[in-house]
């Protein structure tokens, strides 16, 4: 199997006029394809190859740049709902009738809306480092968090602190993950995300977090099986929101990974991949 670090970037033209950049690893079989939805300011290069390769042992795994992100054309929209509709356009362009979804951080918000906007498209959903729309306390991130990951120039130190924590173990895990993410790729890199993408995505995050408890009722519309997961010390989207999600979703299971921050799925990539594969096998 070609590894994620060696797979080439492809493009597909969608009916909405956007040319989407994507990568695909693993092979089609009985298992449905798994489509991944990326975090704030992330592009194709920001997925951990070790996680992708482990997931791809059992199915086809597809990563992509949504509208205006990285090498995809267009302008990044500033609402989660628009991002979800754009992601559906991408999935339709690939000719896929049913998929599983794995959304990480902002991507997990998008995954929720895809499941609500096109329920017949979605089989199972994984929500990593997630929160429901309208929950109190997520109307924007803490000043230290947005300073660490939201500046004009990305900060490697800020990324490691938010994604892996500041303990010696967290720093070591962050350095190891960064080595895999940024040091293993043998094919051409993706285009970096722009300032327009950063502004639009953070607008989408803050709109998602406007307190509105009536919005929590939307979760009753996600009837597919859902695996909710987070690290126990995530400073960006604290794990209490994972507990809230799992309690409100009709058919959810929850796991909180120990000694882990926002990037728990990279720190615990072997365990998380095994858990996701088991969940998707159903």
UniProtKB/TrEMBL annotation:
Keywords: Hydrolase
Domain AB hydrolase-1: 33-266
The keyword Hydrolase appears for this protein: yes
Protein species of origin: Streptomyces yanii
Origin: domain of life: Bacteria
InterPro entries with a match to the protein in the record: AB_hydrolase (IPR050471), AB_hydrolase_1 (IPR000073), AB_hydrolase_fold (IPR029058)
Pfam families on file: Abhydrolase_1
Single GO MF annotation: hydrolase activity
The protein's name in its UniProt record: Alpha/beta fold hydrolase
């Amino acid at each position: 199997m070609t590894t994620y670090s060696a797979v080439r970037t492809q493009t597909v033209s969608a009916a909405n006029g956007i040319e989407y950049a994507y990568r695909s690893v693993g092979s089609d079989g009985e298992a449905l394809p798994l489509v991944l939805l990326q975090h704030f300011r992330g592009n194709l290069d920001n997925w951990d190859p070790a996680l992708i390769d482990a997931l791809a042992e059992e199915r086809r795994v597809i990563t992509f740049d949504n509208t205006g992100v990285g090498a995809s054309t267009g302008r990044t929209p500033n609402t989660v709902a628009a991002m979800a509709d754009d992601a559906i356009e991408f999935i339709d362009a690939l000719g896929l009738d049913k998929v599983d979804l794995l959304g990480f951080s902002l991507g997990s918000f998008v995954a929720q809306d895809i499941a609500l906007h096109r329920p017949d498209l979605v089989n199972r959903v994984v929500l990593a480092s997630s929160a429901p729309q309208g929950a109190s306390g997520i109307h924007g991130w803490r000043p230290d968090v947005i300073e660490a990951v939201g500046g004009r120039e990305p900060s490697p130190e800020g990324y490691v602190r938010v994604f892996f924590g500041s303990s010696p173990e967290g720093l070591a895990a962050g350095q190891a993950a960064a080595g895999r993410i940024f040091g293993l790729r043998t094919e051409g890199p993706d285009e970096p995300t722009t300032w327009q993408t950063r502004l639009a995505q953070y607008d989408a995050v803050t709109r998602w977090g406007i307190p509105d408890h009536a919005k929590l009722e939307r979760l009753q519309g996600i009837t597919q099986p859902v695996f909710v997961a987070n690290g126990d010390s995530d400073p960006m989207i604290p794990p209490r929101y994972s507990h809230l999600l799992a309690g409100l979703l009709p058919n959810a299971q929850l796991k909180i990974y120990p000694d882990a921050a926002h990037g728990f799925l990279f720190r615990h990539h072997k365990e998380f991949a095994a858990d996701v594969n088991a969940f998707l096998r159903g």
